Amino acid sequence: MAKSLLCSSTLNPFFSTTLSSSTSSKKNQIAYSGNSKNQTSSLLWNRRDLSLGFMGSLVAIGLVSNDRRRQDANAAILEADDDEELLEKVKQDRKKRIERQAVLNSAVKEKGYLQDLVYKLSKVGQAIENNDLPAAGLVLGKGIDTEWVKTVNLAFTKLSTSPEENTEVEAFNSSLASLITSVNKNDIESSKLAFVSSAGAFEKWTTLTGVLEQLKGL
């Protein structure tokens, strides 16, 4: 009886420990198995997300590439249009230059009027520089209705083809009228200002029309 109790008391802790260990081991296996499944599932989802992300990136790259190709195509079309417009403008400018040159070559009489104007302005400028307004008055005359002013304006009318050129003609005539008035009034300072203004307007006009080079050859 004593042996039986001894064995019982001795073995119970052992079985208790063994059972506890076995139960703990099974729980750990179950937990590990659960964790393993969770990890596997998580890994599968991660791979799936990565795959979807990669596919999305490819699609985005494709869209961007297509958009860039469209932009390049549109730019090429616009550039071609610009080239055509530029080419047309060059043709028109060349045509105008040829027409202008033909007019200048045929305007022998008008260029003579303008050469006379250059001579008169030179003489008037020298007289004003020497404060000799009576001498300047002899060259200019008494008003803008003199014959030489009329012939100069005939040349302006024939050779002026643009609004800018006509603007300089108007500026010249206005300054010339002031110059004649100032000279006849013996106003040296106003005469100087009016002379500079009229000569400047005439020079701009000759540059715009291309007459300047023609006059140099006379």
TrEMBL record:
Residue span, Maintenance of Photosystem II under High light 2 C-terminal domain: 113-218
Domain of life: Eukaryota
Protein name: Thylakoid lumenal 16.5 kDa protein, chloroplastic
Species whose genome carries this gene: Camelina sativa
